[in-house]
Specification:
Layout: E1 20-23, E2 34-41, E3 46-49, E4 54-59, E5 69-74, E6 77-78, E7 82-84, E8 95-99, E9 105-109
Antiparallel strand pairs: 1-2, 1-7, 2-3, 3-6, 4-5, 8-9
């Protein structure tokens, strides 16, 4: 009987699409780079960051719509290798959850204490 492949643990993602993040570990080519999150993949626990970890894709031409050739596109990187940049203090920070008076739950900066979500 074949064994079923173990799925990666699915954690709550505290990074959303459109956030500015900084790469904290990985290759020296992109460590320290900042970029906007294009897509969040919670099942794989990965994020796609604009301008970070660009790979070449060999595209076959598809009719008149897509031209063939080598195109460069961003690939997903593990969520643990990026850290959210606080828009108020402009530093990479951990995230804490803050409950507002009206009962909403929003993200907050651990460094300066400001609320990240508007």
């Amino acid at each position: 009987m074949a064994r079923k492949a173990k799925e990666p643990t699915r954690r709550k993602m505290n990074i959303k699409r459109g956030d500015i993040v900084q790469v904290i570990s990985g290759s020296a080519l992109w460590r320290g780079k900042r970029g906007r999150v294009i897509k969040v993949l919670p099942k794989e626990n990965r994020v796609i960051v604009e301008g970070v970890y660009l790979v070449w894709k060999h595209q076959r031409p598809m009719g008149r719509l897509l031209q063939g050739g080598r195109i460069q596109k961003p690939a997903p990187i593990p969520r643990s290798k990026v850290m959210l940049v606080c828009p108020h203090c402009d530093k990479p920070t951990r995230i804490k959850m803050v409950f507002l008076e009206d009962g909403r739950k929003v993200r907050g900066c651990k460094r300066c204490g400001e609320i990240i979500d508007a």
